[in-house]
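Researcher: Going back to the complex we discussed earlier. I've cleaned up the inputs and rechecked each line, so this should be the final set. Can you rerun the prediction on the complete assembly and write out the structure?
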Amino acid sequence: MSGISRRKFLTCTLVGAGATALSLKTTDAFASAKLEGYPDSMGVLVDLGRCVGCRSCEAACNREQQLPPPAQSFDDPSVFDQTFFNGQKRRTDEKAYTVVNRYEPAATEQPVYRKSQCNHCNEPACLTSCFVNAYTKTSEGAVIYNPNICVGCRNCMIACPFNMPAYSYSSATNPVIKKCIFCYDTRLKNGLPPACVEICPQQVMTFGHRKSLIEIAHERIKARPDRYIDHLYGEHEVGGTSWMYLAPAPFEEIGFDTTMTNEPIISNVKDFLGTVPMVLAIWPALFTGFHLLATRKHDIEQHGDDHSARKEEEKKS
Amino acid sequence: MKIKIIIPVIIATFACVAGLSPLATAAAAAPPAQVRIDQLSKDFEPVEFDHAGHVDMVGDCGECHHHTTGTSAKDPDCMRCHSSGATSERVACRDCHAPDPFSADHLKTTSEDRKRYHRDLLGLKGAYHRSCTGCHEASGGPTGCLDCHQRTEAGNALFRAGKYAPAPTDKASGH
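Model: Rerun complete. Updated structure for the full complex:
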């Protein structure tokens, strides 16, 4: 190996080491960055102890979003007895962006009704997973999507920790994602509460700034500790959600997933994805260096000293 | 139709009697015999609430009006401030429970005002339903939606009920 190539090798190694150090620092910065959501984000506090299961919210959603007619009337309580697959309760679909299900937890005498819809995460996994960037988290707090951009890949359905996005399976030509958009187009962006919140006779849902809703929720727990589980679901789960829940019975008994971490879903992949550019940029140079080094040793063993070999060549010519 | 006549007559009577101060009038006024509740008139027919009947039945105004009618508050928490039993100037539900609790203006004055004690106050519709159904459940009164208010044509369309009901099928949908 000549002096020049040794210098090159050292330079490569140094540059590589420097770049590695920089990249590691960058990934650290990524990992430590915590988004608390937009400061003026709106939200909804759902007090499940108040719900009587009248399904007015489902009806209002259907009217507001101009969804197709349901299979049964909205005042038909028999839907609460429906189960699918392994005893699964009703879920959101292309015809219903919100559904109410009935649970019978041991802790309460009365059944507990649970409304579900998109929870509008602060750091939405659906948005992260969408490779055509169809999703937007608006400053009002809504997670909306552009159906004209959606290619129907259903990545977001897999990514969502709450299983909320639905799919228009009925469309043969242009199936797209369908989900609650917080009534963004027709209401939220004009400062109005969503249709379900407005129609609810029991005021199960309280619409307001997310920050004040968190305060109000903790005040309610404090004022009536016998009536509430001491937890505000959605305050921290998966990085926080715009829709948050108070419950009169343990959350796991009324259909909530309580195994979720407080880290946003993207944190699971952020560190890994941060190393990808580093690997792509540095590894080729680094391993070329190693290769040259290894080859040099091999060459020395085979041909002896470089200089003598070259001298021989010179002599021959 | 009857109520439309009764209410102005009552108002006129008290206005004549008390004359100058409308607030004093309200505080001293006899309770209305009937109250027309028409907040949901888009989807539901107005409710002619039999106020006199409920006064006879319940007896204690504080059951519904909290501390505002001169009776002491029931809840020990409320009694910390409202134990005096003074009659309030504002007695009607809508005086405190806003018909539009989530309007931008109302959010500014209530939930955003962190110093306000009663900032988590129910809206008018929530106050009616939670007060009525809570008591009705305990006392065996009617609790079904249609027991108190009939749906309008728009309400039937909303709930896909009546002539808007979907054709019955054997298989439940959802998937």
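Model: Worth noting: The mean pLDDT of chain B is 79.
Researcher: Good, that matches what I expected from the previous run.
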